[in-house]
Give the backbone structure.
Amino acid sequence: MFDLEKREKSILLVLLAILLIGLAFGSYQKRVVPVDVRSDNFTYTAEDTPVDVIKVNINISDAAQLEKLKGVGKVLADRIVEYRSKNGNFSSIEGLKKVKGIGGKLYEKIKDEVSID
C-alpha cells in the first residue's frame, strides 16, 4: 500500500507512540480531581473529628502568630503589636479597627479567627 523506507516507518511508529501516550495522559488528567486537605485551623481529637477553630489571642500573640491571620502580613502584625504596647490590651476584638491598616473589610475577614482571652 505505502512504499516507505525503514527509516520513515520508524519515524511514523515513534510519532504514533507519542500521540497515543499524549492521549492517554490527557484522559488521565481529566479524571484526577483535586482535593483540598488543608488543616491549618483545626485541632483533631483521637477520633480525627475537627473541633473548634483555634483562635489567635490578639492580646498575647507575637507578630509571627498574628501573621497567620488572613490578610495580615508582617507590617500589619507589627502594627498590632505596637498598638497593643502603646495602648494596652484590647478590650474587644473590635479594637483592631483602631490599628492603622485594619478597615471594615479586613476586620470582617479575621474577626472569627481572633479572641481577647
User: Anything to note?
Assistant: The beta strands are 56-57, 114-115.
